[in-house]
Amino acid sequence: MKLLIATSNPGKMHEFRLLIDLPELELVAPSEIGLKLEVEENGATYAENAALKGRAFSSASGMLTLADDSGLEVEALGGLPGLRSARFVNEAGATDADRRRFLVAHLNGRLRPWTARFRCVVALVDSQGKVDLAEGVCDGEIVPQERGVNGFGYDPVFWIPGLGKTTAELDTIQKNQISHRARAVRAILPKIQEHLSKS
Ligand code: IMP
User: Fold this and answer.
1) How far does the centroid of ligand 1 lie from the alpha carbon of residue 198, in Å?
2) d(C-alpha 142, C-alpha 100), whole Å
3) Who has greater pLDDT, 92 or 118?
4) Given this model, what pLDDT does residue 85 score?
5) Is there an atom of ligand 1 within 6 Å of 153 CB?
């Protein structure tokens, strides 16, 4: 059986491949089946956005599809950037590094720790359009100095106090032990296994 992962982010794809390692299940990226879809993430919640993406990719491919939506919630910023994490810098061509600098610039001068949380919702959508959802969170804090070169996005400034490292200093196996995406995926795994057992 094949499972389409509705992402064009190679960092996420790498995490998903290690997280969902089931016999007889092949994970497929949209680019591997020539599928290019831009889905407008205009939902009011992570769950709505994940379901929007999942439905669009599933109906375009006819495949069982896993989509995710995630974001970073910073306590001192009232939970921002949250749903707007990918568009936090409102400029065409802004990079992950620009978003990290913008975030730290917003926090500079505020009392530390800069408590924060990653949140992820995954949506599993079958070929009939049925949606199952699961959520995971990962608690940490934002640090002013970037550390580490692994991961993607905000990882170099997201510090896990219990480990004394940023998530960019963890390898994928270590990040998958604690991350928001890993927790959401683990919670949806039984639903994926149900589909496998029916196939
Ligand atoms: P989306 O889920 O692709 O919409 O991502 C939302 C934003 O959160 C993007 O800027 C990502 O880079 C960032 N983000 C999501 N998950 C992670 C993560 O595991 N590490 C670092 N940044 C992340």
Assistant:
1) 33
2) 10
3) 118
4) 93
5) yes
**Which structural domain, as residue segments, surrounds residue 152?**
2-198
Residue 78 Cα, ligand 1 centroid: separation in angstroms? Answer: 18
Place of tokens 């059986």: 1
pLDDT > 90? residue 156: yes
Which 3 state secondary structure label does DSSP give 132?
strand
What is the reported pTM? 0.97
Task: Write the pLDDT tens digit of every residue in 175-187.
Answer: 999 999 999 999 9
Closest CA to 122 of 132, 113, 114: 132
Query: Has residue 199 got a pLDDT over 90?
Result: no
What is the CATH classification number for the domain harbouring 70? Answer: 3.90.950.10
Domains in the chain: how many in total? 1
Gap from CA of 83 to ligand 1 centroid (Å): 10
Residue ID of nearest Cα to ligand 1 atom 9: 86
Ligand 1 atom 17, closest CA? 153
